[in-house]
Design goal:
The structure is a single chain. It is built from 4 helices and 8 strands; from the N terminus they run αββααββαββββ. With 198 residues, it is an alpha+beta fold. The chain has a domain of 131 residues. The strands form 3 sheets. The protein has a 4-stranded mixed beta sheet with strand order 3-4-5-6. It has a two-stranded antiparallel sheet with strand order 1-2. A two-stranded antiparallel ribbon has the order 7-8. α2 packs antiparallel against α4. The longest helix has 22 residues.
């Protein structure tokens, strides 16, 4: 074989190897280029959402308490309310201030406690509840005042361990009327016996 033929065959072999090698490598562009949508592998354009777990807050625990509304005959009527546990006296009295539900009002129940009354504080010590009220509660007079006081006294006394109620208006201790109209510094359910639930 002549030298020319060998050189030609070698050149052909080198070109063939270069072509095969170039076909196996990653092509190099002069700069970044965007791929067409058809060139993107299936599923990458619309990936499925990642599995996530959501934590659900537990429902607040509620407890049923007894409130007292006024019935058509002037007697107190016990009604039930669900309030957040542990149902401090402040929360229970707040539910009383809200007044009767629509169903209770339709049944003739009402409240003498004005809905604008503010329960500033309420605590129990030695069986006596001290209730500090604000708003229009202190403006009540006559039978409306007696009715409202009776509602608060019976509602507070329905809680375990409460035997009497001392009233304050905006932090100042006040005497309140009983069913007979006599003013007392501490009220209890027995003083409202004529209004007691039947």
């Amino acid at each position: 074989m002549s030298g020319r033929r060998r050189a030609g065959a070698l050149a052909v072999a080198v070109v063939a190897v270069a072509v095969v090698t170039a076909g196996c490598g990653v092509p190099v562009d002069r700069g970044p280029t965007a791929l067409s949508r058809s060139g993107v592998p299936f599923g990458l354009l619309n990936p499925s959402p990642a599995n996530t777990t959501t934590s659900v807050s537990p429902a607040p625990v509620e407890v049923s308490v007894q409130l007292f509304m006024l019935g058509p005959t002037g007697h107190l009527v016990p009604v039930q309310r669900d309030v957040p546990f542990p149902a401090p006296l402040t929360t229970v009295l707040g539910a009383l201030v809200d007044g009767p539900t629509n169903a209770e009002a339709a049944a003739g129940l009402q409240s003498a406690v004005p809905q604008q009354t503010v329960v500033l504080s309420a605590s129990v010590a030695g069986g006596v509840a001290t209730v500090d009220l604000g708003g229009p509660f202190g403006q009540l007079v006559g039978q409306a005042q007696i009715d409202a006081v009776a509602q608060v006294v019976f509602t507070a006394a329905a809680l375990p361990g409460v035997t009497g109620v001392v009233f304050e208006l905006n932090g100042q201790p006040v005497s309140v009327p009983t069913a007979t109209g006599a003013d007392v510094p501490e009220a209890n359910p027995s003083q409202f016996a004529p209004m007691a639930p039947t």
